[in-house]
């Protein structure tokens, strides 16, 4: 009887232990919902919507690493995809390592039983600039294993595109077959030649553009086209064509070919319009002062802050984020076409964009004359008003007891509502003089005024300040009452005559 009692007790204890163990696994496990996306694309934010190109309906994106990163690793991107064809999604994590400039891909497979992720492989990419890095996956024809595709900028500011095919041996261990490894000092793009068919890597055509080594001081390029070679399972070059570039001044070419990002940003500074899009078409406004790009169409503006910039030969690559919603990103690939012409390719929200889909912002842009916010010092308006503000050092006053004074490029403004001081600058926008007041208090925003000077009568001058808001295409009064001041004597430069 005692033996039966102890046997039942032992069974009861073992049963309780099994239940507790299973419950613990259930709590600790990570459940990932299976999705049937044809194209798996990298982690990033939601798309901006209205202006975004056609996107995939279904993607499965991870927003963090599902494995513990080591102390010397920092997260860049991640991608959820079934790597070994077992029907369970695995994860690829892109990381940067301390004391190593390159981005690494960590392959982590999910155990179907425990649903835990384990490191299995590591790939060192040739990309060093995190802001330019993009990670994709696509199908391989007649296979349930994916192809890995990554792009980015190298240490010498070349564009890089690498494609790995995933393979499985008899022991179900994955390995990677290099299908493409392209680098160029121009642009690399992938286009899908079979838009209405299943999205597989064999439908892709790769275009790469290099400068012509035989003509180093020209915009001539060499176009190389690669198509899928099913027999060797690589992308093989099928053609090479020399494309003549527009003639351009040698001095400008030498200046912009140095690789100096600031020089190219200065060249871009100002308003660029798309000739093919009509009167109220698309424009891009590059502001070096505010470190931003303003996208405008039909009086609708989107402001994107520049996160990072990388120069390439006769071009520049920007990584930007939306000023209002920082999770929305755009990348701009800008190529010099001429003294006043650029070719722009915009990658919308890289998390959702299908390979080969063109952005509505892509195209040729011409520079609009006299649109740069900071005009050169030989501008008549700039010269005139800077000289006025330097000459009239006495306070400008009015009958309300308000005053405005400029001394040594600093201003002081006293009104019934406030007393401000700081630094000023004169800008020329749309043929109007604009006074920019930068406050000493960094928490206060800059204020812009349309400034005008009139000779009311002999030895009497009137200065008017109308508060405005400034954008790439317009100057708009805020509706605040204008400030009108007077000077009762001639400026110093006149008094010495």
UniProtKB/TrEMBL annotation:
Keywords: Membrane, Transmembrane, Transmembrane helix. The chain crosses the membrane at residues 6-25. Residues 251-367 form the Pallilysin beta barrel domain. This is Pallilysin-related adhesin. It comes from Treponema phagedenis.
């Amino acid at each position: 009887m005692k033996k039966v009692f102890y046997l039942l007790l032992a069974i009861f204890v073992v049963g309780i232990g099994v239940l507790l163990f299973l419950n613990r696994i259930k709590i600790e496990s990570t459940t990932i919902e299976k999705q049937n996306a044809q194209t798996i694309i990298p982690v990033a934010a939601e798309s901006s919507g209205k202006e975004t190109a056609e996107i995939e309906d279904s993607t499965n994106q991870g927003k963090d690493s599902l494995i513990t990163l080591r102390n010397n690793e920092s997260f860049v991107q991640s991608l959820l995809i079934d790597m070994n064809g077992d029907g369970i999604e695995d994860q690829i994590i892109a990381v940067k390592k301390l004391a190593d400039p390159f981005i690494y891909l960590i392959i982590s497979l999910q155990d179907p039983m425990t649903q835990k992720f384990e490191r299995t492989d590591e790939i060192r990419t040739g990309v060093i600039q995190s802001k330019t890095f993009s990670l994709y996956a696509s199908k391989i024809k007649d296979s349930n294993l994916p192809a890995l595709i990554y792009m980015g900028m190298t240490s010498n500011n070349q564009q890089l595109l690498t494609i790995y095919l995933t393979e499985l041996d008899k022991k179900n261990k994955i390995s990677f077959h290099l299908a493409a490894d392209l680098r160029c000092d121009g642009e690399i793009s992938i286009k899908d030649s079979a838009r209405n068919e299943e999205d597989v890597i064999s439908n892709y055509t790769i275009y790469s553009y290099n400068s012509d080594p035989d003509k180093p001081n020209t915009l001539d390029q060499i176009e190389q086209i690669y198509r899928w070679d099913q027999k060797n399972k690589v992308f093989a070059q099928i053609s090479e064509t020399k494309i003549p570039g527009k003639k351009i001044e040698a001095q400008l070419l030498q200046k912009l070919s140095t690789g100096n990002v600031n020089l190219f940003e200065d060249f871009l500074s100002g308003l660029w319009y798309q000739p093919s899009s009509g009167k109220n078409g698309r424009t891009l406004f590059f502001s070096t002062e505010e470190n931003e790009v303003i996208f405008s169409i039909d009086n609708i503006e989107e402001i994107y802050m520049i996160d990072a910039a990388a120069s390439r030969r006769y071009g520049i690559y920007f990584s930007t984020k939306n000023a209002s919603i920082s999770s929305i990103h755009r990348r701009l690939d800008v190529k010099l076409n001429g003294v006043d012409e650029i070719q722009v390719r915009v990658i919308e929200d890289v998390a959702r964009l299908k390979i080969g889909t063109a952005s509505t912002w892509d195209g040729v842009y011409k520079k609009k004359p006299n649109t740069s916010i900071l005009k050169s010092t030989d501008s008549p308006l700039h010269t005139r008003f800077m000289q006025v503000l330097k000459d009239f050092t006495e306070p400008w006053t009015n009958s309300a007891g308000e005053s405005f004074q400029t001394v040594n490029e600093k201003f002081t403004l006293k009104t019934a509502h406030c007393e401000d001081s700081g630094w000023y600058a004169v800008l020329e926008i749309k043929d109007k003089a604009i006074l920019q007041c930068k406050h000493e208090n960094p928490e206060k925003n800059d204020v812009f005024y349309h400034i005008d000077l009139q000779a009311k009568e002999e030895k009497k001058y009137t200065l008017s300040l109308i508060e405005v808001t400034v954008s790439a295409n317009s100057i708009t009064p805020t509706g605040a009452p204008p400030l009108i001041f007077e000077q009762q004597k001639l400026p110093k430069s006149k008094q010495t005559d």
